[in-house]
Write a structure and sequence with these properties.
The structure holds three protein chains of three kinds.
Chain A lengths: L2 E9 L1 E4 L2 E4 L4 E6 L3 E5 L6 H9 L6 E6 L2 E2 L7 E4 L11 H5 L1 H5 L4 H14 L15 H14 L4 E5 L7 H18 L2 E6 L2 H7 L2 E5 L6 E6 L10 H6 L1 H15 L4
Helix pairs in contact in A: 4-5, 7-9
Chain B lengths: L2 H33 L10 H13 L2 H32 L2 H16 L6 H8 L3 H25 L3 H9 L4 H39 L4 H10 L3 H34 L5
Chain C lengths: L1 H8 L3 H16 L10 H12 L4 H32 L1 H16 L6 H8 L3 H26 L2 H9 L4 H39 L4 H10 L3 H32 L11
Helix pairs in contact in C: 3-11, 4-5, 4-7, 4-9, 4-10, 5-7, 6-7, 7-9, 8-9, 9-10, 9-11, 10-11
The chains are: A alpha/beta, B mainly alpha, C mainly alpha.
Chain lengths: ~260, ~260, ~260
């Protein structure tokens, strides 16, 4: 299969008042279409910088980023982003937030409403369509954010620690839901986290980053059962998965700052 | 480049950035004056204002009028602070008192000090007392109001935590309410100074017993546009100086240091 | 139950106390009418002025000036605020000027502008505009700059253009600050208007109370002041607060805009 995303020779510096600071080391990576890749690394290693560059929010100091073989210049609707912070709009109801991407793309109303209704069903948001974000729990809001990105039907979805601000119990549910959603829609996903379990649980492939300036130090394929389904019960009772998680933990642990 | 040199360069750059807009403004003003040939009774050129300024300074006239205004706002600020803050505390720490007074304070805020000026003139004549009364009224309302809301906004847990450590009421006021309400009190003082300075100028215009308002309004009677413009620049500059040199440092020292409230 | 009633009546207590004190003053030592009018005299005078007197015309004149000056200030302030809020260099250039002109906004201009516009409504409108503009401008710039970047990035990643981002993110995001700017702007504008009318107009509520001083009629002044306060309060409660409730509070945002 062709590479959906290709990053080659990427390196980034931030200019500050006291000179430039190196945010990342040289990074090369590629993501195949339909693949779920997670990137795990210590905080400050530059993983968010990399994601922002792929999203088109910043121009890399060095290197190239291709999406479907075309250089990335600025954000675009073929690359959806789910942020850690609440990025849905407080002044739009759940329904209008989820449909925002379709509104921008001028999708006809009937079709838009059908897509929104389908995602509301998939994400368990039924009954909350006309609520405003502040009337929802943290977990519900992040569901809306995920649904908004999926509704816009991008080819690649970039997720930046989307569940970090959610309580631990809800997080487990959201991770399982995301797994199901991906299995159902076969999207290409690039997912950043600092949680080893999360990375191994969700991924087809896990990338491990070094501390700042971060480079990719290891890459592990995660064997998936044919169904592609993921749930925490079978994950925790699967000795192979636990061994992989242990290996990744060792790799990450070595990068403690 | 050494650090010191770098700081020097930054300071020069900053000064330039601050002064450049004014240079542009003065150029535009001068251009309009000469280009459109505006008569002197409407607008004068920058050099005339400068000449008027140096004249007023060398005769000591400006110092006299400016110090009258500054003395008045200073006196009013001290009196308002000394009365307003304790009053705001008394009201703020009691929820019944707060409930009773909030609406009235809002109502009084709607009646600007200057609206009471006619009554104050009837009571105290065309005197400094009239102006002082108006400025104190203008200053004290936002100070009381903000002290009160500041006290009310302190999380109850702070006081409870100290109570569980065995602190008495006075101690809680000193360690929780006073520092907790301080940011809001400072906001009140800044707001009050803003309102008060304007009320002062307006009152001086009508009372005509000295002060910068008197200076510019008197100059109007004689059509001395140059003198009016000098007065305006001095009024603006003094307000900025007072705000930046007195009020803002207190704010940065406390509020910004503790990282509480306000951005 | 009784407690609830006390709670509801509590805001009226200061007014009742003030009325009692007023009455006591008259019972103990009767001040001359030029110093302090009786409450009845105030009511009678205001009624006289309201029915067949100059009061309706004065209220109308003041309100029209406030409306004109504020509308001008809000439109120009928001427009300039958006331009500066979205362009850092423009904001940096304008900032020193704004700090300075804000310090002399409003009534300080009166002696100069009387020479340009003469006495009357244009002068009052200029002074209100000059007062309101800076408050709206500063709040708009602050509001625009404080819209969380992540909200804008989110819409961009959905394919939103710059214009779409401004329309659906920046404008509503800055709205709480703009609305709180409008609220305090109208308050400041109202003050500026009364001050302007004291000397710079022949009609309006400011002129009404000033005439009270000229004719030594304390009843007109006290009645006029209470009316000025009541109008300011009514405007805030029945016009500005409802707008804020319908937008900002509905969205779960808190208006944290500064007072000025």
């Amino acid at each position: 299969m062709a590479d959906k995303i290709e990053v080659s020779g990427f390196r980034h510096f931030f200019r500050t008042e006291i000179g430039s600071v190196q945010a990342t080391g040289t990074i090369d990576l590629s993501i195949k279409a339909g693949e779920f890749v997670t990137l795990v690394g210590p905080s400050g290693c530059g993983k968010t910088t990399l994601l922002k560059a792929i999203a088109g929010f910043l121009t890399p100091s060095e290197g190239n980023i291709l999406c479907d073989g075309i250089p990335v210049r600025g954000p675009g609707r073929e690359r959806g982003v789910v942020f850690q912070e609440l990025a849905i709009l407080p002044w739009r109801t759940v329904r209008r937030n989820i449909g925002h991407g379709l509104e921008i793309a001028r999708v006809p109303k009937a079709e838009r409403e059908a897509t929104v209704a389908r995602l509301i069903g998939l994400m368990g948001l039924g009954g909350f369509e006309d609520r405003y974000p502040h009337e929802l729990s943290g977990g519900m809001r992040q569901r809306v954010a995920v649904a908004r990105t999926w509704a816009a039907d991008p080819e690649v979805i970039l997720m930046d620690e989307p569940f970090a601000a959610v309580d631990a119990m809800t997080r487990l549910t959201l991770q399982e839901e995301l797994g199901r959603l991906c299995a159902a829609t076969r999207k290409t996903v690039f997912f950043i986290t600092h949680s080893v379990d999360e990375a191994v649980f969700l991924a087809d492939r896990v990338l491990v980053m070094t501390r700042r300036p971060g480079t990719i130090k290891a890459e592990l394929e995660i064997p998936r059962s044919a169904s592609g389904g993921r749930d925490w019960d079978s994950f925790t009772s699967d000795p192979l998965m636990q061994k992989i998680a242990g290996d990744v933990m060792h790799l990450v642990h070595a990068e403690r700052v | 480049m050494t650090t010191l040199e770098r700081i020097g360069t930054v300071t020069i750059a900053r000064t330039f950035k601050t002064l450049l807009p004014f240079a542009v403004l003065i150029a535009v003003w001068w251009g309009i004056k000469t280009g459109a040939d505006v008569p002197d009774k409407l607008l004068v050129a920058p050099p005339a204002v400068w000449a008027s300024f140096t004249g007023l300074v060398s005769h000591g006239i400006l110092a006299e009028y400016a110090s009258a205004s500054l003395r008045l706002i200073g006196t009013a600020a001290i009196i308002s602070f000394v009365i307003g803050v304790p009053l705001g505390f008394a009201v703020g720490t009691n929820r019944y008192a707060a409930r009773a007074l909030e609406g009235t304070l809002r109502f009084l805020q709607g009646i600007s000090g200057i609206a009471w000026l006619p009554l104050a003139i009837l009571w105290f004549g065309f005197s400094q007392t009239t102006t002082l009364t108006i400025v104190i009224y203008t200053l004290i309302v936002p100070i009381i109001f903000n002290t009160m809301t500041g006290v009310r906004a302190i999380p109850e847990n702070y006081a409870l935590a100290l109570q569980s450590l065995g602190a008495g009421r006075l101690r809680i006021v000193r360690d929780v309410y006073l520092p907790g309400a301080l940011p809001s009190i400072i906001v009140g003082v800044r707001l009050g100074m803003g309102y008060g300075w304007r009320a002062l100028i307006a009152s001086e215009m009508l009372v005509r017993q000295g002060g910068l308002g008197d200076l510019i309004f008197g100059a109007r009677t004689f059509g001395q546009i140059d003198r009016i413009m000098v007065g305006m620049v001095v009024i603006g500059t003094l307000y900025i100086v007072v705000d930046r040199l007195l009020v803002q440092p207190v704010e940065t020292l406390t509020v910004a240091r503790w990282g509480v409230l306000r951005r | 139950m009784i407690h609830r009633w006390i709670w509801r009546l509590l805001p009226w207590v200061p007014a009742v106390i003030a009325l009692l004190a007023w009455w006591a003053w008259f019972a103990i030592d009767r001040p001359p009418a030029s110093v302090m009018p009786s409450a009845f005299a105030v009511i009678a005078t205001m009624a006289d002025l309201a029915f067949g007197g100059r009061l309706p015309g004065d209220i109308l004149a003041s309100m029209a000036r406030l409306l004109g000056g504020s509308a001008l200030g809000i439109v120009t302030g928001m427009a300039a605020g958006f331009v500066a809020g979205l362009n850092r260099p423009i904001a940096d250039f304008m900032n020193p000027l704004v700090v300075f002109f804000n310090a002399i906004s409003g009534i300080v201009w009166l002696p100069l502008v009387i020479g340009w516009l003469g006495i009357g409504s244009p002068l009052a409108i200029f002074l209100i505009w000059n007062t309101v503009f800076f408050i709206i401008f500063q709040n708009t710039v602050l509001g625009v700059q404080l819209v969380p970047e992540v909200l804008e990035l989110g819409v961009q990643s959905l394919g939103g253009s710059r214009w779409e981002t401004i329309r659906s993110v920046t404008l509503p995001g800055a709205l709480p600050y703009i609305l709180s700017g409008i609220r305090s702007g109208l308050g400041f504008g109202w003050r500026a208007l009364i001050a302007a009318e004291l000397v710079g107009a022949t009609t309006g509520l400011g002129q009404l109370i000033f005439s009270g001083a000229e004719y030594h009629r304390a009843d007109i002044i006290v009645g006029g002041c209470l009316l000025i306060g009541a109008i300011a309060m009514a405007m805030d409660r029945w016009l500005l607060l409802p707008i804020e409730k319908r937008t900002v509070i509905r969205w779960g945002l808190v208006a944290t805009g500064q007072g000025r």
